[in-house]
TrEMBL record:
InterPro entries: Znf_RING/FYVE/PHD, Znf_TRAF
Protein's recorded name: TRAF-type domain-containing protein
Cited Gene3D superfamilies: Zinc/RING finger domain, C3HC4 (zinc finger)
Annotated GO MF terms: zinc ion binding
Keywords: Metal-binding, Zinc, Zinc-finger
Pfam family for this entry, one: zf-TRAF
Lineage, uppermost ranks: Eukaryota, Viridiplantae, Streptophyta, Embryophyta, Tracheophyta
Chain positions of all zinc fingers (TRAF-type): 195-247
Length: 329
């Protein structure tokens, strides 16, 4: 763009502006509390107006000299994240406002100090002392000064207002609202994918591949409670089946693993029998009954009852492989 361009885009990353603006009130509260601690005639509220003005002036001045100081000192900042940079400015200002009592006592480390700061933050919020939109206005000025890479604000300039207006419709930093029902989040257009990948209101397919469509914030609860694909222990776990099965496929598993379940049950009834004999007996039980009927047994107890009835018709269980013989072999 032309160097003489007079019309700036002036759009900023909405998330970072809001995040930094949230830090200004606690910073102001810290400065006011520490500046009046131990005093009889002054309270945090009595100095808030003056200290707020000093704070804004301090932050603007620090932000204006930040890039130049970094270049002169040839010192890369520990972080190029504007949140970290401006938070350090806020902390430095709050520290500079501590009175003598705060500096020489253990007040700075006390829980009572933290409580007083929290209380004063709430007091200012309730009274509307420094509204969020005004804090965000200050932050935009600070952000423009410290974000020399243009990562968090648009530095485009235009010769005509119509060009600037047209650009604002497609600018990476234009504010958009989440389209997911129930979510009112506002963010820069360029952060849309990032927000969408984390939005708690986003509708997703079940992570366990059931047919349900679930809100992201409800996914964990769905998966461990009502999801038909939730893995559960086989109902024959107590007699030895260690399979984990989707809840909706228990019936299918009982049929597929029928022989295995029968062998586990028969082993309890005939402890001296070999694996070969148990498998042979299971085949006999299935032939005398039917796989479908046997698989309808919902657990080991009901299958054991069915097997006992069938074995009464099969006659004595004759062991073809004697335990002693098996040991000798």
């Amino acid at each position: 763009q032309d160097k003489g361009a007079a019309y700036h885009c002036n759009l900023y990353d909405a998330d970072i502006v809001h995040k930094i603006a949230q830090e200004l009130l606690p910073g102001l509260a810290s400065a006011c509390v520490d500046n009046t601690t131990g005093g009889i005639f002054r309270s945090p509220a009595s100095v808030a107006v003056d200290i707020r003005r000093e704070m804004v002036d301090y932050l603007v001045t620090r932000s204006e000299t930040f890039v130049a100081e970094s270049m002169v000192l040839d010192d890369d900042p520990a972080s190029d994240d504007p949140y970290d940079i401006i938070s350090d400015f806020v902390d430095d200002f709050a520290t500079s406002k501590r009175n003598f009592f705060s500096k020489v006592s253990a007040w700075v480390l006390s829980e009572r100090r933290e409580d007083r700061i929290d209380d004063f933050v709430q007091e200012m919020e309730m009274s509307g002392f420094w509204l969020l939109n005004r804090r965000e206005s200050v932050v935009r000025t600070l952000l423009k000064n410290v974000d020399f890479k243009g990562s968090y604000h648009c530095n485009m300039k235009f010769n005509h207002p119509e060009e600037a207006e047209q650009h604002s419709l497609s600018c990476y930093f234009r504010a958009v609202t989440c389209s997911n029902e129930g979510c009112n989040a506002t963010f820069s257009a360029g952060q849309g994918e990032n927000h969408d990948s984390n939005c708690p209101f986003k509708i997703l397919r079940c992570e366990q591949n059931c047919q349900d469509l679930i809100m992201r914030r409800e996914m964990d609860r769905h998966c461990i409670t009502v999801c038909p694909m939730k893995l559960v222990k086989c109902p024959f776990y107590s007699v030895g089946c260690t399979a984990s099965v989707p809840n909706c496929r228990i019936d299918e598993h009982r049929l597929d693993a029928l022989t295995t379940h029968l062998v586990h049950v028969l082993q309890l009834l005939h402890k001296e029998a070999s694996s070969q004999d148990l498998n042979h007996r299971a085949d006999e039980v299935i032939k005398l009954s039917s796989p479908t009927k046997l698989a309808s047994a919902s657990d080991a107890r009901s299958l054991t009852y069915m097997v006992k009835e069938i074995e009464a018709n099969l006659g004595p269980f004759e062991l073809k492989v004697k335990p002693a013989a098996a040991d000798d072999a």
